[in-house]
């Protein structure tokens, strides 16, 4: 029992793409909003600290002048320079000397600063329920300290309003991102949906001759062209399969008809002994020999059909193969079947990566074909030699009547039999298997005339 796919895997590609776009945009909006809020808060804090420091230093530089702040404006006061709303002067004991309206808390740390026992200090204090930032600095001349405080409520309110505005913007941004994600997904997957519909139409109609429409040069167009290539390959394979079945049926029908006729004749004689005189012993023996020949031909044809239709998964594993050993074994097999023909070999050691059983059957088919067409006492010469730095060349030359020029281009086609060969036993598949095996091993095969007579079959295989 297979595990059920997770929630994400159960979503359609359209939904997943929409969610990814929405999440990406939403994350960007949230990050930007957070960065903006932190930046504004940092700027306000920096501005607050700068204002506190500037005001405290101004008062500490001339405390005598600021003691008169309640009676009038101190000398050098710049009305355009913003001061903290609350300030006060402390003497060395920490007592309040003077200040603006309102009183700032004198903390223990402030008393130590006034006594000159510690450096300036910034603290957060609460005055009348409001949060203030208070800076205490020592007076430069005469001792004591200056305290300056700024109310933070306005700043905090501004940050709260800004945070609310940014939160609203984030909500709108996420909603817009979700809508944008669907739009992007729909636009991006439109060609895929069109391609899917075309492929589904092909699956329903099984019409492989109508390619899907392809336009553009993007990845979807590349996928469409790949689909068309696949459809063309499937169509070619289906046509080849249909042709193979039709041709195989035609070729099987002939020996089966002959076998059936001969068997019916023998059965009729067995059922009606009074007719036995019509089938003399010599004719009966000839009939049985013909049956044996037809059965052998049928078995050979079946074997060759299986060889041609073999799937890649049922084939041998590729391994280093010594071609000279393969040719020697094939020649030994054919010698026993054609004792009237002389087989000679001139073999150079050569190794290829291939399937030994298929390579041996390829050589056997070539030698069988040469032996079939060679007269008694003729010689079939097999040569294996290097053909350049990257190829091995296997040639089989016979001394038969040769192949007509108009038949040479077709001798490796399935079920093709030249007019002169139709009276001879055979299926027309032997050389087709040779061509298929050579191609599957990355090689080529060709048939040419042998001077002064005969045929030369040459197989080239990569080294």
What's a quick, concise take on this entry?
The protein is of the alpha+beta class. It is built from 10 helices and 12 strands.
Describe the protein in words:
The protein has 463 residues and is an alpha+beta fold. Helices cover 52% and strands 16% of the residues. It is built from ten helices and twelve strands. A five-stranded antiparallel β-sheet has the order 2-1-5-4-3, sandwiched between helices. A five-stranded mixed β-sheet has the order 7-9-10-12-11. The chain has a two-stranded antiparallel ribbon with strand order 6-8. A hairpin with a 2-residue loop joins β3 and β4 (130-138). α6 (219-271) runs antiparallel to α7, α8 crosses α9 (356-373) and α9 (356-373) runs antiparallel to α10 (430-440). The longest helix has 53 residues, at 153-205. 23% of the residues are buried.
């Amino acid at each position: 029992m297979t595990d059920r796919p997770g929630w994400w895997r159960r979503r359609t590609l359209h939904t997943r793409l929409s969610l990814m776009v929405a999440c990406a945009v939403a994350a960007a909006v949230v990050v930007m909003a957070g960065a903006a809020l932190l930046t504004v808060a940092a700027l306000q804090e920096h501005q607050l600290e700068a204002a506190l420091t500037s005001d405290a230093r101004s008062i500490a530089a001339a405390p005598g002048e600021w003691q008169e702040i309640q009676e009038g404006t101190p000398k050098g006061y710049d009305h355009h320079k913003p001061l903290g709303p609350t300030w006060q002067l402390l003497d060395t004991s920490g007592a309040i000397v003077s200040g603006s309206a309102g009183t700032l808390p004198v903390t223990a740390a402030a008393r130590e600063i006034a006594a000159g026992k510690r450096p300036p200090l910034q603290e957060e204090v609460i005055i009348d329920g409001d949060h203030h930032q208070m800076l205490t600095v020592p007076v430069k001349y005469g001792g004591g300290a200056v305290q300056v405080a700024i109310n933070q409520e306005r700043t905090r309110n501004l940050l709260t309003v800004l945070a609310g505005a940014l939160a609203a913007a984030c909500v709108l941004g996420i909603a817009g991102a979700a809508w944008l994600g669907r739009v992007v997904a729909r636009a991006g997957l439109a060609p895929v949906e069109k391609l899917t519909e075309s492929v589904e139409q092909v699956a329903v109609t099984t019409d492989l001759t109508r390619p899907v429409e392809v336009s553009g040069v993007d990845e979807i167009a590349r996928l469409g062209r790949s689909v068309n290539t696949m459809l063309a390959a499937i169509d070619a394979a289906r046509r080849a399969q249909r042709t193979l079945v039709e041709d195989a049926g035609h070729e099987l029908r002939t020996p089966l008809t002959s076998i059936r006729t001969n068997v019916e004749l023998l059965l009729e004689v067995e059922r009606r002994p009074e007719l036995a005189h019509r089938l003399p012993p010599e004719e009966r023996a000839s009939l049985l020999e013909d049956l044996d020949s037809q059965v052998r031909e049928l078995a050979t044809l079946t074997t060759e059909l299986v060889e041609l239709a073999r799937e890649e998964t049922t084939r041998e594993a590729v391994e280093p193969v010594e071609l000279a050993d393969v040719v020697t074994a094939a020649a030994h097999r054919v010698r026993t079947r054609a004792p009237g023909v002389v087989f000679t070999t001139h073999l150079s050691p050569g190794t290829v990566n291939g399937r030994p059983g298929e390579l041996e059957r390829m050589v056997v088919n070539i030698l069988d074909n040469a032996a079939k067409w060679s007269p008694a006492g003729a010689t079939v010469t097999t040569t294996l030699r290097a053909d350049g730095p990257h190829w091995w060349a296997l040639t089989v030359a016979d001394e038969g009547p040769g192949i007509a020029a108009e038949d040479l281009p077709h001798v490796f086609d399935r079920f093709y039999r030249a007019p002169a060969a139709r009276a001879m036993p055979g299926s027309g598949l032997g050389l087709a298997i040779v061509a298929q095996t050579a191609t599957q091993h990355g090689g080529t095969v060709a048939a040419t005339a042998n001077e002064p007579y005969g045929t030369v079959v040459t197989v080239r295989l990569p080294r």
